[in-house]
Amino acid sequence: MTAVNPGASRQAVVEAALVLLERMGLTPADLAAVPEPCKQVPTFAEYIPVVSAAVSTGTRRAYGSYWDRVVEHWGARRLDEPTPSEIRQLMAYVKTHVVARRNARGGRSAEEHLVAALRCLYQRAVDDGLIAEADNPARKVAKPRRLPATRRALPDTRLAEINEAAAATGDDPDLDTLLLRLHTETACRRGGALALRPEDLDTDQCLILLREKGETVRWQPVSPTLMARLIEHGRDRHAPPGGQLLRYADGHPITPRRHDHLWTRLGRHLPWVATQGISSHWIRHTTLTWVEGRGVASDATFREKRQDTRPAL
């Protein structure tokens, strides 16, 4: 009986393995390389809080309710599971279950914001290496076309009616007329008014520091009368230097709900306000239209023009 050489047998196995590797397009070095472990794709319920904590306050405020809706529907699913068709289905659901508002336009804005919220979420996932850019389903869904804005500049007579109604109704006419005057004189957004602090008032130069959408910061000239009223308001309602300036009579900071309640109340007293969906943004649009229509006007001329449309403070 012929003895078997163990070394020769092992060599034959190695040679056979090398032939097989060659046919597969691999080398022994490829076998030695240790592949990096793939990142586990998180669920929406796990990942949305991470993204929410990383974005700006404005982004969180704009997209937060839509991320909540995503968690409600897809919380236990992984980010790489929903398809573009499923996103469109969620858009249809959001459109039909949108909260009715005075300026609602059939849910189109809700659809648009949902897509934007998902794009923000998925872009973060791409940046974190959780999914590939080509696998981003939100990029494959088009936003609804935005309809032309319905707002227009208000005539001085209408602006005067708004101010008169605010001064004669409600539980805090001093606050409401101050809000309207602030928006009229500075063309600030609602967020800019809410972010205003006592330390943002430059009394020597009659300037206020506004922090608004997109982290925009600007110094805005105001009239001495408005500056005095803002200082008085902060003092009487005990606003701390670094805290919110505009406050309720009990000293608590106002929220966006104050604007909502104001315009709802004005709509009851002025039916055309409710019919047209007038809001603080219309005041901003009115001021900007007046300034743009007259070129570069002096602050004094602007304040004199608007003084006629405001009640005394």
Shape: elongated
Work out the helicity level. 55-70%
Distance between the termini: 118 Å
Q: How much of the polypeptide forms β-strand, as a percent range?
A: under 5%
CATH class descriptor name of the largest domain: Mainly Alpha
Strand order of the largest sheet: 1-2-3
In CATH, what is the homologous superfamily of the largest domain? Intergrase catalytic core
Task: Indicate the radius of gyration in whole angstroms.
Answer: 30 Å
Our count of domains comes out at: 2
The residue-averaged pLDDT reads 85
Largest sheet, strands/sense/barrel: 3 strands, antiparallel
Number of strands: 3
Short key terms for the protein model shown above:
2 domains, DNA polymerase, domain 1, 3 strands, 56% helix, mainly alpha, three-stranded antiparallel sheet, 313 residues, hpI Integrase, Chain A, disordered C terminus, single chain
Structure description:
- This protein has 313 residues and is mainly alpha-helical.
- The protein has 2 domains: 44-140, DNA polymerase, domain 1 (Orthogonal Bundle); 156-307, hpI Integrase, Chain A.
- 56% of the residues lie in helices and 4% in strands.
- The chain is built from 14 helices and 3 strands.
- The protein has helices spanning 6-23, 28-32, 44-54, 57-74, 84-96, 108-127, 156-168, 173-186, 190-195, 224-236, 256-269, 271-276, 280-293, 299-307; strands at residues 201-202, 207-212, 216-221.
- The protein has a 3-stranded antiparallel β-sheet.
- A hairpin with a 4-residue loop joins strand 1 and strand 2.
- Helix 7 (156-168) packs antiparallel against helix 8.
- The longest helix has 20 residues, at 108-127.
- The protein is elongated, with a radius of gyration of 30 Å.
- The model is unreliable at 296-313 (pLDDT under 50).
